[in-house]
């Protein structure tokens, strides 16, 4: 893989601490939903730093790549990408990376389990399914601290409204919306058992989020009888 020049074409503020970057990459080879890229920033004095970010956009979209970046406390790269990078400014990308944690328009139902910004590659899968008008039923269980921390809320609501094959369930760990039926709390066996697919449906399962979240969710899925070979995980540092 080689480093490619990219330019910020547009940006959207998703939450107070998360921003979607629409990057123009003229020689982009295309990607699969679930893959990620390495981003490199280089200062005038030659100092460089790089981080990996999941791709939020589906498949290949006319030479553009979307990344949704969550600001990390004291994160030199994420802070620059969320607060300082301006339209027209360059950065470098390397990728796409990964061939295991990807959705390939396969026929089984799909269960997506996200913790915090772990929803980004799963959103790429939802978007890809929508682009190809896939008929596989999708269910997303999305754990966030508060309603204000949830990414893609309006788009998810629109997609659920327009697509009977897509279902989304939010789990709030710190503060729930007024009138929410469940008290705030972590993902539990009951949550996945109620809102996920039964094991005998043999769903493809994708889990993404902080390491502790991914390990807990994977353990619950296995305890409920899901085939470990059909559970794919992607994890990152930090907290959900």
Automatic annotation (TrEMBL):
Residues 1-103 form the FAD-binding FR-type domain. It comes from Actinoplanes auranticolor. GO terms for molecular function: 2 iron, 2 sulfur cluster binding; oxidoreductase activity. The keyword Iron-sulfur applies. PANTHER family: NADH OXIDOREDUCTASE HCR, PROTEIN RFBI. Its cofactor is FAD. It holds the Pfam family NAD_binding_1. This is Oxidoreductase. It comes from the Bacteria.
């Amino acid at each position: 893989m080689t480093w490619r020049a990219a330019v910020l074409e547009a940006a959207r503020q998703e939450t107070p601490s998360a921003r979607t970057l629409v990057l123009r990459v003229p020689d982009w080879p295309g990607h699969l939903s679930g893959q990620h890229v390495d981003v490199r920033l280089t200062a005038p004095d030659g100092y460089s730093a790089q981080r990996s970010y999941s791709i939020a956009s589906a498949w290949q979209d006319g030479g553009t790549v979307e990344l949704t970046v969550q600001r990390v406390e004291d994160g030199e790269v994420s802070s620059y990408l969320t607060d300082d990078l301006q339209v027209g400014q360059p950065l470098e990308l390397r990728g796409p990376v990964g061939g295991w944690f990807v959705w390939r328009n396969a026929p089984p139902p799909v269960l997506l389990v996200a913790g915090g910004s772990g929803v980004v590659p799963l959103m790429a899968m939802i978007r890809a399914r929508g682009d190809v008008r896939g008929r596989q039923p999708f269910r997303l269980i999305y754990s966030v601290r508060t309603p204000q921390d949830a990414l893609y809320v309006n788009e998810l609501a629109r997609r659920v409204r327009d697509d009977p094959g897509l279902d989304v369930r939010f789990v709030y760990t710190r503060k729930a919306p007024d009138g929410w039926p469940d008290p705030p709390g972590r993902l539990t066996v009951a949550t996945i058992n109620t809102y996920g697919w039964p094991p005998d449906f043999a769903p493809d399962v994708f889990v993404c989020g902080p390491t502790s979240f991914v390990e807990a969710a994977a353990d619950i899925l296995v305890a409920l009888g899901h085939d470990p070979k059909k559970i794919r995980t992607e994890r990152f540092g930090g907290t959900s």
